[in-house]
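hey can u check if this looks right to u? its 119 residues, i copy pasted from the old doc so theres a chance i mangled smth
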Amino acid sequence: MGWSLGFDGNWGRDIGYGVPAYCDAPKCMKEIDRGLSYVCGGQPYGGEKGCGLYFCEQHSSWRSLCKRCESSKLPYKKLSPEHPRWISWKLKDKSWKEWRKKHPNEVKNMLKLNTKGVI
């Protein structure tokens, strides 16, 4: 099994080093991916000590924990927006055709972002 693509049911979003993303720290738009290199806790879904959110180097400690987990606080509640490249990939790539058929409401929401000039 590879770690390029998966789904995190806890946070309800795609994860893996193949998923372009933004840092989950509030107001940080640093481009990262949702691979193990950026996950709080350094392990899938955050392991035992992390929250499982994704942070750039500026917003994580040397122990691979975000600043909130480092201080034993609850995780951030608001997630970063999906990256436009990821939205575009899910809407257009043939490998996501079956997913689009099974998730029409999510596709509709992504298309709304597209009409707002996000993609």
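Residues 27 and 109 are 22 Å apart (CA to CA).
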